[in-house]
Amino acid sequence: MNIKSSWLKSGFVDEAIPTSVNLKEEIIRLKKEKNAIIMAHFYQTNELQDIADFVGDSLALAQEAAKTKADIIVLAGVHFMGETAKILSPDKLVLVPDLNAGCSLADSCPPEAFKSFVDNNPDHTVLTYVNTTAKIKALSDIVVTSTNAKTIVDSLPMDEKIIFGPDRNLGNYLNSVTGRDMLLWDGACHVHEKFSVEKIIELKKEYPEAIILAHPECKQPLLVLANYVGSTAALLKYSTNSDANDFIVATESGIIHQMKKSSPNKNFIPAPPNDSTCACNDCEYMKLNTMEKLYNCLKFEWPNIDVIEEIRKDAVKPINRMLDISASKGL
Ligand code: 13P
Ligand code: SF4
């Protein structure tokens, strides 16, 4: 495959697609022909979620990537999700529709600075959230996701000294629900930090029975106000099983697609951000992926994710520890 310089510059295949191409049909044909699996995170657009073979949260995507029999994994999500898939399945071709799909939380943890933090606290076990680069995972003892973080912290002896990074909100939340005093890295996700507690309280006056659902990457005052705190998969499950009718959803808006699919008669209200003029409930990195980019990356088998073997072999250990503990706890 000849990788064009314009692709390298843009970070995705920028070939124009003739209007005669039926994107949906062609994506389905290409993925069968190439024995590819399309995996999508809950924050992808509705049409990407609907065309995917597998839709899930960060943990489920990692679990699926570790066991798939496909030759090609197309990860419609952000860069660290593709990287996790590649670390777990190094012999497979792992494609992402747009290499620019980064993560502000992963960016808030530069490897050199985090290494100094770890080196300065040598007697600590290093727990890191999956929203990190491969280099950070390689410095870690155990990786966690929002689905299994509490379970994994609880599995460690109470007197074990722990570093947790990079999300300070998730770290604070875990400290409060596990009774720990983990040393926290000071990182955050720009999407989850923008929800307005004041506006949510106002909204509750309009919908007094509404259940507030929040992802643990939100700031503490919102987590205290929320009726239920959990990962994207946990919030979806909660809304499906709940008898309530109205839900205020404090996480990226893409999850509402699955919530509505599971509970078509319930009312899901995106939590209002501080700035009502922005599309702040959307993660702009997640939303860089489109059907056109998905089609082109499958067709041209680019852009793909590569992880240097030296880093991969260190990064796979803490991910496997996470998968092993999760499996032993039925997650
Ligand atoms: P989940 O672990 O709930 O999928 O969250 C991923 C994420 O990026 C949250 O911002
Ligand atoms: Fe990263 Fe936040 Fe986007 Fe999740 S929502 S991928 S944490 S920037």
Textual characterization of the structure:
The protein has helices spanning 5-10, 23-33, 46-51, 58-67, 79-88, 104-107, 111-119, 134-138, 149-154, 168-178, 197-206, 220-225, 232-241, 255-262, 291-300, 309-328; strands spanning 36-41, 54-56, 72-76, 93-95, 125-129, 142-144, 162-165, 183-184, 211-214, 228-229, 246-250, 267-270. The radius of gyration is 20 Å and the shape is globular. It folds into three domains: 3-100 and 286-309, 3-Layer(aba) Sandwich (Rossmann fold), CATH 3.40.50.10800; 105-189 and 313-328, NadA-like (Rossmann fold); 195-270, NadA-like (Rossmann fold, 3-Layer(aba) Sandwich), CATH 3.40.50. The chain is an alpha/beta fold and 331 residues long. It is 43% helix and 14% strand. The mean pLDDT is 97. Residues 78, 103-105, 131, 189, 191, 252, 283, 285-286 line the site of iron/sulfur cluster.
Largest sheet features: 4 strands, parallel
Supply the CATH architecture of the largest domain.
3-Layer(aba) Sandwich
Our count of domains comes out at 3
* Ligand species: 1,3-dihydroxyacetonephosphate, iron/sulfur cluster
Estimate what percentage of residues fall within beta strands.
Answer: 5-15%
- Reading the helices and strands in chain order gives HHEHEHEHEHHEHEHEHEHEHEHEHEHH
CATH class of the largest domain: Alpha Beta
**Looking at the structure, what is the overall shape?**
globular
Number of strands: 12
Mean of residue pLDDT? 97
**Cα-based radius of gyration, to the nearest Å:** 20 Å
Which percent bin holds the helix content?
40-55%
Measure the end-to-end span.
Answer: 40 Å
